[in-house]
Structure formats: structure tokens, C-alpha cells
Amino acid sequence: MTPPRTTSDEFPCERVPAMRNVMMPRDTNALGTIFGGVILSQIDLAAAVEAHKYWSGRLVTVAMDKIEFKHPVWVGDLVSCYTETTRIGRTSLTVKVDVWAERRFGREGEVHVTEASVTMVAVDDDFRPAPIPKPE
Length: 136
Description:
The chain is mainly β. The protein has one domain (16-123): Hotdog Thioesterase (Thiol Ester Dehydrase, Chain A), CATH 3.10.129. The protein is built from one helix and seven strands. It has one helix spanning 36-51, and strands spanning 5-7, 12-14, 19-22, 58-65, 78-88, 92-102, 110-123. The strands form two sheets. A five-stranded antiparallel β-sheet has the order 3-5-6-7-4, covered by helices on one side. A two-stranded antiparallel ribbon has the order 1-2. A hairpin with a 4-residue loop joins strand 1 and strand 2.
């Protein structure tokens, strides 16, 4: 599997990630790899970035489905989260997030770390579900 790419009518180009972060020593566990929870947090934030294309108000995460860590992430890796909205409902939407790590410091290449389907609900100021306007 290779990092997601798209093409335009003029030239092929890389798809733009919703988020990119270099993993730092503060994010490591006792084994020296990045905590899974740090990656989950990145997934959640990337899904919110994508979801805010359709809803500018508050969003809450209600589910993350089928997360399987396929490869460890190391200090110095550049982690990229690619997103795609897969469903827009009345008050919720689902975002697919693919996570890739670009190896650094002697480790080369890119690896597909994990993916997740994140369901978010639009809420009003009282945290009640709010209707999402249909995209034009």
C-alpha cells in the first residue's frame, strides 16, 4: 500500500494531509516507540479538521472503529494523517483517516501505520445534536 495520491487534469500530485507532525521524545512509551494514544489523538484531530469542512460549530467524537496498529512509530518519524469524508448524516458524519509514517534518522521509507473510521456529531451550545447543512 502506498500513501494516498490523487491526480488532477494537469499533473499528478500528492494528496494533502489534514495533519503532519514530527514525533518527539515526549511521546514515547517504555519501549521507545510512540504511544498508541498519541496516534489516536492525531487521528481524532485530523478527523475534526476534515469534519469542520462541513460544520463550523462544535463537534464531538462518538466512535473510532477498527484501529489496528500495523507498524511502530519512532521518535523523529513524520506522521501524516490523510482524511476523507465517507458519510454525512443529519447530525453526524464519518471520516476515514489513514496514518502514514515517513521514517527518519537511518530508517527509510514510508509505512502505513493504521487507519480508522471516526464518527463525529455536530452539537449546539448545549451539546445537543445539531443538523448539518447539506453540502452544495
